[in-house]
Amino acid sequence: MADAVGVRDGVEKPSVLIIGGLGYIGRFLAKYIHTNSLCSTVRLVDKVLPQLAHLAPEFTEPCHQSIFLQADASREASMSRIFERPDGSTKPWDYVFNLGGETALSQALEVYKLRSVALSVTLGREAARRGVKAFVEASTGMVYAPSRNPRKETDKLKPWLKLAKCKLEAEEALSKIPGLNLVILRLAHVYGEYDAGFIAKALCLARVYQEQERELKWLWTEDLRINTVHVEDVARALWKAAEWRAVNSTIPADAAAAAPESPTSPRRSGAQFST
């Protein structure tokens, strides 16, 4: 006999709240969840309406208007609307993914503090108050000091962009919120289909110069290395991180013993991962 909708192997599937659900990573996470029927209920929260988000056809169902809520998640006044379940249930959301925040470079520091730091902290406090099982924060690998070697969680932190400095500030603030079941993913440069960011522009530019058999003059030498991760891999990693955090109220003793103290985690009830 097949499982009922919202149930897998006799167990209710998790309910999911995605902040920044129409952003580049958010829409791919929604598509991954929809395609694999991973949740019982999902809500996408964004300041941009689906009709204005330039969604490709394959995102029509995963990002349907019926599961969308337009709200500014950096405002305390929006929390009740965002966290209330659409069916009127008083149960908290199981997984909350924070994929919101300012991603454009060269913004004023106050912009990042409002749209990234305030957003993360406001959401984190509400998630802790409501007993969310897993709060997944998407941060950036640019919080680390530059190095030729792959970064580990405990490596030196030295963000040099204002965006990265505020992401690190948000991490530190979240790690101090009592009762927050936090996991942080420090992402490399994300690329993939429909990407309009730095990696996509660089690849397109390189292909044009290759076709024209011209030399592409760059500010750096061929020794420059840029770490990347495909957006579909990010979606899977986000889901796996939430699943792991939901069943680990604290980091397992063997894992905690093997890992030195993280610079942004004075309590070992949080976790950071770099991808």
UniProtKB/TrEMBL annotation:
InterPro entries according to UniProt = Epimerase_deHydtase, Lipid_A_modif_metabolic_enz, NAD(P)-bd_dom_sf
Positions of the region Disordered? 255-275
Positions with biased composition (Polar residues): 262-275
Q: Which residues form the NAD-dependent epimerase/dehydratase domain?
A: 16-244
| Entry-linked PANTHER family | BIFUNCTIONAL POLYMYXIN RESISTANCE PROTEIN ARNA, LD23561P
Recorded protein name is NAD-dependent epimerase/dehydratase domain-containing protein
Q: List the source organism.
A: Endocarpon pusillum (strain Z07020 / HMAS-L-300199) (Lichen-forming fungus)
